[in-house]
Write a structure and sequence with these properties.
By secondary structure, this protein is an alpha+beta fold. The chain has 8 helices and 17 strands. It holds the Pfam family Trypsin.
């Protein structure tokens, strides 16, 4: 059982089922019932029990189908399934957040709220940083170019983080978790390119210890290969630069922005308008506004691009590259996760996968 830095367990049992231990106030925010069982005063830390009645209300609010609701009711018990039975949508309450009001307006974005992006990972690597995204309780996905040359002992992964400097500028209702990395797995088709976006810019970090089960630490859902991204908008978040200048200054508070997804041909046209020669491949997707303003930037690499799919937030991109930040007709370039979601699932489950 994972134990937090404050000494209380990460999960508890109630009526034969497992639930997360979390702040009683935070449990109330997500519609749960605070029960004893976490070894602390129930008015501070409680066993957060969500009944089927509560789950039904959530189902009606999000528009999920009833099959999804049933899998939510059984979510925690299914975590005990063997690794080779892994299915992200059934075994985990993935892609849900206590705060459903994502920032609609990173470059030009807004500060995130606590628990708004519970899958977001902050990766510290020696003297630089990258983003990441929790894809299971044991694995974090990030850009391969972020960690390809890093030593394992240099890579620190923070989950449930909001303010990396703990300045007190924003309210944090629960502590972040610090994880070390056991293993890194680079996608076998990754190719570094010095003047063009890297090919298959994706890697997985296997955590030394499993992520705790808390309302502010929840994996993202993985997409199906057939997901339709045409004409949709996504949300990108990170701790990277907030101004498109030459200064290497990021932000200590997580920020997010909404960005339209672009057809690959549209993306090529945008770059042509700016007289930029870009080689885009099938493993890439672009996102950005015609007038710039909202974008990912330096320090955001490896972070997630997500869309709302059937009531759950789903990973469709990993921040990879871009010619400038927040510039008109110069969109961000992301690794297209639907191309490699099956590989991610195979690594997580321990199965081999032919690419």
């Amino acid at each position: 059982m994972f134990v937090t830095m404050f000494g209380y367990p990460s999960n508890c049992e109630n009526m034969g089922n497992s639930y997360p231990c979390t702040l009683s106030f935070a449990c109330w925010l997500v519609g749960g019932s605070s029960q004893p069982g976490c070894g602390a005063s129930s008015w501070i830390i409680s066993c957060c029990v969500v009944t089927k009645k509560k789950a039904l209300a959530e189902f009606q609010d999000t528009g999920d189908d009833f099959q999804t609701l049933e899998s939510r009711e059984d979510a925690i018990p299914l975590l005990q399934k063997r690794a080779d039975d892994y299915d992200d949508r059934d075994s985990e309450q993935c892609g849900v957040t206590a705060d459903r009001a994502f920032s609609k307006r990173i470059i030009g974005g807004k500060k995130a709220l606590f628990g708004q992006y519970p899958w977001q990972a902050y990766i510290k690597i020696a003297t630089y940083q990258c983003g990441g995204v929790l894809v299971s309780r044991r694995f974090v996905a990030t850009a391969a170019h972020c960690i390809i040359n890093a030593r394992l002992k240099e890579i620190l992964v923070y989950l449930g983080e909001l303010d990396t400097q703990d300045t007190g500028d924003v309210e944090e209702l629960a502590p972040a978790e610090l994880h070390r990395v056991k293993k890194r797995i680079i996608h076998p088709k990754f190719r570094y390119r010095s003047t063009q976006p890297d090919l298959y810019d994706l890697s997985l970090l296997e955590l030394l210890t499993e992520a705790g089960r808390a309302f502010h630490i929840i994996p993202i859902c993985l997409p199906h290969y057939t997901i339709d991204l045409a004409g949709r908008s996504g949300v990108v978040a990170g701790w990277g630069k907030v101004q498109p200048s030459n200064e290497l200054i990021g932000t200590n508070v997580l920020r997010s922005a909404s960005v339209p997804l672009l057809d690959i041909h549209e993306c090529m046209k945008w770059h042509t308008l700016k007289k930029i020669s870009v080689d885009l491949r099938e493993d890439m997707v672009c996102a950005g506004h015609p007038d710039g303003k909202y974008d990912a930037c330096l320090g955001d690499s490896g972070g997630p691009l997500v869309v709302l799919e059937n009531g759950r937030w789903t990973l469709v991109g990993i921040t990879s590259a871009g010619f400038g930040c927040g510039e008109p007709h110069q969109p961000g370039i992301y690794h297209r996760v639907p191309m490699t979601a099956d590989w991610i699932r195979a690594v997580i489950s321990g199965r081999g996968f032919q690419v």
